[in-house]
Amino acid sequence: MSFENRLTELGLELPPARAPLYSYVPVVVEGGLAWVSGQLPWHGEGLLATGRLGQNVDIEAGRACARLCVLHGLASLRAELGSLDRVRRIVKVVGFVSSAADFYDQAMVVDGASTLLGELFGEAGRHARSAIGMAALPRNTPVEVEFVAAVV
Hints:
By secondary structure, the chain is an alpha+beta fold. The protein has helices at about 5-10, 60-80, 105-120, and strands spanning about 25-30, 35-40, 40-45, 45, 85-100, 130-135, 145-150.
């Protein structure tokens, strides 16, 4: 099945690919892998949420942020590749979760990203993953997600 068609079937619309604000590129393709830079949960001109998990952001909001981060990453990937149909599989996901000192459910938050990738890519969306608690993230975002995809 076409991943582009699956995106439509799921009723998902990718946001416009965002230009980087600093000195990096959104995606680097090398050796059959596409390395997608860390994505924030942009919602229009602002962020879907700000703050820390376990402090002023709940798990469901964190999961929604992780999901939105992936949509932005997919938009950047599509802009680089021309089509998501060039993706063979998602190899690795790294989720960074801005966390209160006593918050320990980072994996549950990052699962919002993993679930979306599974819905879209099926078996090819199953990936290795890290969910990392952080003291702070850029722009006071609660979640940042980066990923690596095998591509043709």
